[in-house]
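User: I've been trying to design a sequence by hand for this structure and keep getting stuck. Would you show me what you'd pick, starting by listing the structure so we're on the same page?

Assistant: Good idea, let's start from the same input. This is the structure you sent:
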């Protein structure tokens, strides 16, 4: 019988940080172009974040580079003092002096400065999940990871994550300190990092895909929002939109995937969160996979 696949709605990051698998990525709540400067409608951004929490989101992803800094400040202005079950993840290791100038800096000194600044902007004593935004080709990868391990020993970081890494880099980092999450690009159409996802699944590491709807990080819009083919057909069957099927597929694809779709409108936020309730059958999962 072609029954709907049962999926868990939560995942414990690092084994002890339990979050709902439908989270929110706050990157879009920044100035434009280039995700630079404060969000133009600060109050609307606050309202969207509060609505996300009302709808059950308890995992929010941000980064020092978003703004830079303004995105973290917006989260704090909207949600501090934070609900006891809310986890906030941020990232360091990228400096952004202008909208089109993105500088990777994974030096231990810069990571320490970035972490301290994020602590202040978020108004917390310890960051739930701190992720290396991108490996720096000019700094030995082990040095960057070791710097995060030291910040963890100092009690400034609860869990350590990586972003934009290869499988070899993930395995190397695991030899230095336990890695709780990986944030790489992945979607129903983009399986470039399938090897990293598989490793994470096998080792109970959270996998937080960005570009889950094939969006470009510096451009508006999501290509999968109006997809046709099998995504649209399955969506019609469930009375939902193609983008919701694409998100539901990811939640069914692996139990350690935590989604962080970003949006600037409450209506799209509600659509994304509703995708977590869609139950796909094995046949629908297979048909959706053929969208590739």
């Amino acid at each position: 019988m072609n029954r709907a696949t049962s999926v868990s709605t939560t995942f414990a990051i690092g084994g002890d940080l339990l979050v709902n698998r439908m989270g929110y990525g706050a990157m879009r709540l920044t100035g434009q172009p280039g995700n630079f400067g404060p969000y133009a409608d600060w109050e609307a951004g606050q309202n969207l974040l509060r609505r996300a929490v009302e709808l059950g989101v308890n995992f929010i992803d941000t980064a020092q580079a978003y703004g830079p800094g303004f995105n973290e400040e917006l989260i704090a202005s909207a949600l501090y003092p934070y609900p006891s079950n809310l986890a906030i993840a941020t990232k360091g290791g990228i400096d952004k002096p202008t909208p089109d100038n993105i500088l990777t800096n994974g030096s231990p000194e810069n990571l320490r400065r970035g972490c301290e600044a994020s602590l202040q902007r978020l108004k917390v004593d310890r960051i739930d999940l701190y992720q290396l935004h991108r490996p720096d080709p000019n700094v030995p990868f082990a040095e960057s990871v070791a710097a995060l391990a030291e910040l963890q020993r100092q009690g400034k970081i609860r869990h350590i994550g990586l972003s934009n890494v290869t499988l070899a880099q993930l395995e190397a980092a695991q030899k230095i300190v336990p890695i709780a999450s990986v944030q790489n690009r992945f979607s129903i159409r983009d399986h470039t990092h399938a090897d990293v996802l598989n490793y994470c699944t096998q080792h109970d590491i959270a996998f937080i895909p960005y570009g889950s709807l094939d969006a470009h990080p510096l451009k508006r819009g999501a290509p999968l929002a109006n997809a046709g083919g099998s995504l649209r057909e399955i969506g019609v069957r469930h009375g939902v939109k193609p983008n919701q099927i694409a998100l539901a597929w990811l939640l069914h694809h692996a139990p350690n995937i935590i989604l962080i779709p970003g949006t600037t409108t409450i209506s799209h936020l509600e659509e994304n969160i509703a995708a977590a309730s869609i139950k796909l059958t094995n046949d629908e999962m297979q048909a959706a996979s053929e969208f590739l």
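That's my pick for every position. To get oriented when you compare it with your attempt: The chain has a mean pLDDT of 96. The chain has ten helices and eleven strands.
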